[in-house]
Design goal:
Length: 493
Amino acid sequence: MQSRPFFASLQAKKKRFLTAFQEFIMEDKDDFLQQEEILDAVARFEAMMKSKTSSYFDIAELEGIIDYYLEFSDLNSALQASLLAERLHPANTSIQLKKAIILMDREKLAEAQQLLDSITRYDSIQDEVDIAYIKLNLYRENFQAASDLNRGICDRADESKTDLLIDLAQMFYQFFQFKEAEILLRLAYSFDNEDPEILLKLSEQIIRSNNIDGAILLYEEFLHRFPFSELVWFNLANCYAVLDQFEKAHDAYDYALAIDEEFAPAYNAKGSSYFEEEVFDKAIDCFQDFLKYNDEKAPAYFQLGLCYERMTEFEEAIRYFKLAADEQPGFAEPFFMLSTIEYQKEDQEKALELVNQALSMDEMNPEYLFLKGKIYLKTEEWEKSVEAFSKAVQEDATDTESWYNLAFALNRLGRTEKAIVELNKGLEISVDDADLMYHLSASWFQIGNDSNAMKHFMQAYFLNPDNLEDLYEYYPELESNQSIRDFIADEGI
């Protein structure tokens, strides 16, 4: 990858520093510089490095400079700042800890440990040192050691350490240690159960553990005390929607909107819940409000297009999908949906052109590849269909439809042995899938192995008799197959 695009994006991020860094600066004005002062310090540091001169920076300035570069993952600059800090303030423990973190992020774990082991521990920095060791252990995947250190931090924690607990939870989350993250956030919430931001972070962790009911209880308890938080109502509604409790979800979205009638995400989510219920007229009303209040118009246009597509009002759907594509260049989904409409309208030439446009933006999307394969089935371009479905299963091996459509195309090419191999690959991943077994049965019939064919047919039938009609759409000759007819007669169908 070329370095220029990354460098350009990094500079673009830094230009937004005045707003983005607002959350990064801690509120203790006695210990940390204000953001403008940090930017000034960064500018002086960069000018010094460019001119290869020397300048003096105090500890607070250097900490701000290092944190600034760490925020944007500019590890080289962070390391340069830490080396300068070591020269100017060689005995400062905070600087040493920051350098250890930089070394870890640069994957120099042995050097990081050596530096940490050299730091003299004082009670006042015990937590900071333990956090650094936690990160080192997480990098080494020594999760039990990280957990043991975390227990010590939790045992020493009090209300003054709430922010530290939240930051540490984020660290565990980044290493997929969700249980430890939840422990820390529960403790932070016990110290400050009036902060909706802590509540939302905690509930996110609980939801990741598939405990949606637990998240709902948290939200309801919080709203009983503080009923005017649109974010909490919104998240409560999302939980109900996931559980398909749509009436409760709509009520909660309405409470959020009563607090803030311009809260665009609530209109979008409420519309999506109506869409799931297939109440498309109400979904459209919500997405129109989403269009009104959301600055980015493309998502709303796209959602409206989906509603009209599901209602088979294709002209309106096409209009909105085109608006979405025009509004947001590079947005592949509208082209995919336009292709599906043309596929349904039996205009395969247009469908192929549109799905190729989608693939030009997202070349290995399995859904797009599947549709391309289906188009080629319609036009009886079997080799091209095989190519598309083969790519689709490479990207999503759990997609059984791609596997059996691949097999169907191979059968049409007379490559039935290969079709059997591919279907067995699919069954290795999706064990006991009735559709794959039905199609495997059809392939065995193709080469005259009725014994294997009926073995797999019976397995498929006992798993899902209703899907037999789908098999006949691919292989209508099987409807008159005597072995199948005798078996079904014996079953009393």
